């Protein structure tokens, strides 16, 4: 069979409805030959997000796709995504994560929110969601994040100063990666790790290199057969990446645990934020905390940094939108005051800017669900349980029926000022439902606080020498070239 298990409507549905229900066999299928041609001859392999748009034109909103062991039903319309997500199971699954679980099994480390499944996943999320998921939870991290934003601003001043024009910041993605890693580490480890210092500490640099190593060897490890692992060095490098990641995060978590233990031993009150909560208020062991904190961290860096990069890139190209944002920020936070987590709640345009940047560049451009427990009917088609669905939400967020003039950056389409707002399933950059992104509120807080402060201090302008920037799909949507921006100071005051 093409997808799913062996059940069919004939043995699961009431006989009256059987005649109207179609199956996967009635859907168009992308031929393997065509898929290879598009990927490797037409060069779509790193523009899979654009392939969604192209294939919708060829096959319509629902089609079969597959390569090797991987087979899936592509859903490529707002209506179908809404139907699938609304019919979601109690313990939704995105599919096979054995590439990540293998290392955890090898070292006896607990699974985190990405790798855990079923009821165990549900229980884990119940613990992890606390102090993270509610908008008011993120407010408590406002001061911690603002300290990191201050260091980012200092670094922007420094980089401008040493640039030939006196206001250029080159390779913005790299700077925002450093900001984002520092921001999420300061929340998850409750300590600073020095990513924004001029010289990054050696241990932190090793950690950054290990993350890059693990990600870059993931694809070859997934593609190569298991028997090649003892022959080729690829698997060894991949495992070495994980070793470096867990060595660093394990050390920081152990240090926190020791500090908590000392306070407990001396009858002092234990105070702290997320990590302290996980270590002292839940029944999680250290090895379980390693697994979860590390997965939260890995999910929270490139996603946040690239979204900020796209938002700033767009603002530099749409000066009117940038000006509207500046007016809002300077009205809500006048003078030298630094925007706080409470202040950003009074800035609807700021939120709309991020929402629109995520619509145009949803950094995670596709997502998946696999029905574990139940058969399902989607778009009038029957699918047996274990069917895998690919959610083509990059394409739906570019659909002009939901978003008129989709290639234009129009934050105002998200404002709640009486206008008809787009279907919420049109743009789902953080996923949906109980399995949706756990770090959404933290990511939003980081982006709001950084962007509002930057826009208050600087007018950002494009660097014409870099040409037209396009998105490449490298697990997340990144720029196809180095992005530079001019940061023109709005006043003479260096308000830090
Ligand atoms: C702009 C920033 C971010 C974007 C666009 C984003 C997007 C996503 C998406 C699309 C998913 C899949 C959700 C689903 O299947 O319904 C996800 C899951 C997840 N995200 Fe994020 N994310 C961002 C930032 C973060 C941050 C900062 C963290 C950590 C604090 C984080 C942690 C996670 C985790 C752990 C999961 C897996 C949740 C689970 O399976 O239960 N993300 N994210």
TrEMBL record:
<dbReference type="GO" id="GO:0016705">
    <property type="term" value="F:oxidoreductase activity, acting on paired donors, with incorporation or reduction of molecular oxygen"/>
</dbReference>
<keyword id="KW-0732">Signal</keyword>
<dbReference type="GO" id="GO:0005743">
    <property type="term" value="C:mitochondrial inner membrane"/>
</dbReference>
<keyword id="KW-0349">Heme</keyword>
<dbReference type="InterPro" id="IPR050479">
    <property type="entry name" value="CYP11_CYP27_families"/>
</dbReference>
<dbReference type="InterPro" id="IPR002401">
    <property type="entry name" value="Cyt_P450_E_grp-I"/>
</dbReference>
<keyword id="KW-0560">Oxidoreductase</keyword>
<dbReference type="InterPro" id="IPR017972">
    <property type="entry name" value="Cyt_P450_CS"/>
</dbReference>
<dbReference type="GO" id="GO:0071375">
    <property type="term" value="P:cellular response to peptide hormone stimulus"/>
</dbReference>
<dbReference type="InterPro" id="IPR001128">
    <property type="entry name" value="Cyt_P450"/>
</dbReference>
<dbReference type="GO" id="GO:0042359">
    <property type="term" value="P:vitamin D metabolic process"/>
</dbReference>
<dbReference type="InterPro" id="IPR036396">
    <property type="entry name" value="Cyt_P450_sf"/>
</dbReference>
<dbReference type="GO" id="GO:0008203">
    <property type="term" value="P:cholesterol metabolic process"/>
</dbReference>
<comment type="similarity">
    <text>Belongs to the cytochrome P450 family.</text>
</comment>
<keyword id="KW-0408">Iron</keyword>
<dbReference type="GO" id="GO:0006700">
    <property type="term" value="P:C21-steroid hormone biosynthetic process"/>
</dbReference>
<keyword id="KW-0503">Monooxygenase</keyword>
<dbReference type="GO" id="GO:0020037">
    <property type="term" value="F:heme binding"/>
</dbReference>
<dbReference type="GO" id="GO:0005506">
    <property type="term" value="F:iron ion binding"/>
</dbReference>
<dbReference type="GO" id="GO:0006704">
    <property type="term" value="P:glucocorticoid biosynthetic process"/>
</dbReference>
<dbReference type="GO" id="GO:0004497">
    <property type="term" value="F:monooxygenase activity"/>
</dbReference>
<dbReference type="Pfam" id="PF00067">
    <property type="entry name" value="p450"/>
</dbReference>
<keyword id="KW-0479">Metal-binding</keyword>
<feature type="binding site" description="axial binding residue">
    <location>
        <position position="437"/>
    </location>
    <ligand>
        <name>heme</name>
    </ligand>
</feature>
<dbReference type="GO" id="GO:0034650">
    <property type="term" value="P:cortisol metabolic process"/>
</dbReference>
<protein>
    <recommendedName>
        <fullName>Sterol 26-hydroxylase, mitochondrial-like</fullName>
    </recommendedName>
</protein>
């Amino acid at each position: 069979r093409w997808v799913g298990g062996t059940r069919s409507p004939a043995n699961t549905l009431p006989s009256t409805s059987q005649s109207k229900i179609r199956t996967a066999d009635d859907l168009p299928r992308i031929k393997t030959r065509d898929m290879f041609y598009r990927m490797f001859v037409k060069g779509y392999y790193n523009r899979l997000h654009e392939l969604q748009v192209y294939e919708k034109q060829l096959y319509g909103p629902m089609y079969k796709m597959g390569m090797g062991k991987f087979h899936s039903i592509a859903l490529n319309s707002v209506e179908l995504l809404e139907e699938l997500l609304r019919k979601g199971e109690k313990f939704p699954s995105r599919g096979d994560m054995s590439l990540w679980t293998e290392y955890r099994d090898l070292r006896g480390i607990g699974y985190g929110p990405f790798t855990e499944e079923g009821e165990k996943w549900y229980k884990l999320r119940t613990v992890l969601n606390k102090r993270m998921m509610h908008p008011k939870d993120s407010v408590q991290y406002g001061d911690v994040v603002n300290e990191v934003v201050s260091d980012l601003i200092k670094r922007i001043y420094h980089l401008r100063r040493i640039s030939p024009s006196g206001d250029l910041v080159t390779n913005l993605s790299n700077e925002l990666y450093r900001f984002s890693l520092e921001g999420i580490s300061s929340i998850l480890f409750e300590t600073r790790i020095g990513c924004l210092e001029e010289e990054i500490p050696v241990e932190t640099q090793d950690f950054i290199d290990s993350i890059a190593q693990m990600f870059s060897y993931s694809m070859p490890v997934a593609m190569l057969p298991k028997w090649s692992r003892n022959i080729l060095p690829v698997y060894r490098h991949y495992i070495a990446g994980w070793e470096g990641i867990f060595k660093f995060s394990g050390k920081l978590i152990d240090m926190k645990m020791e500090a908590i233990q000392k306070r407990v031993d001396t009858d002092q009150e234990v105070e702290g934020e997320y990590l302290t909560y996980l270590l002292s208020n839940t029944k999680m062991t250290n090895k379980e905390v390693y697994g979860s904190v590390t997965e939260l961290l890995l999910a929270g860096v490139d996603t946040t940094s690239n979204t900020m990069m796209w938002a700033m890139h767009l603002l530099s190209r749409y000066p009117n939108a940038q000006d509207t944002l500046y007016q809002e920020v300077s009205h809500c936070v006048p003078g030298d005051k630094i925007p706080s987590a409470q202040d950003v709640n009074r800035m609807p345009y700021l939120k709309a800017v991020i929402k629109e940047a995520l619509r145009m560049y949803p950094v995670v451009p596709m997502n998946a669900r696999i029905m574990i427990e139940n058969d399902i009917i989607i778009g009038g088609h029957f699918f047996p349980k274990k069917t895998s669905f690919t959610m083509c939400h990059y394409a739906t967020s570019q659909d002009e029926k939901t978003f008129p003039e989709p290639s234009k950056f129009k934050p105002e389409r998200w404002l709640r000022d009486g206008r008809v707002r787009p279907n919420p399933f049109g743009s789902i950059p953080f996923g949906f439902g109980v399995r949706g992104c756990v770090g959404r509120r933290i990511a939003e807080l980081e982006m709001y606080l950084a962007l509002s402060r930057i826009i208050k201090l600087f007018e950002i302008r494009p660097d014409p020498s870099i040409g037209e920037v396009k998105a490449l799909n490298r697990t997340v949507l990144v720029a196809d070239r180095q992005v530079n921006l001019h940061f023109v100071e709005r006043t003479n005051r260096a308000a830090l």
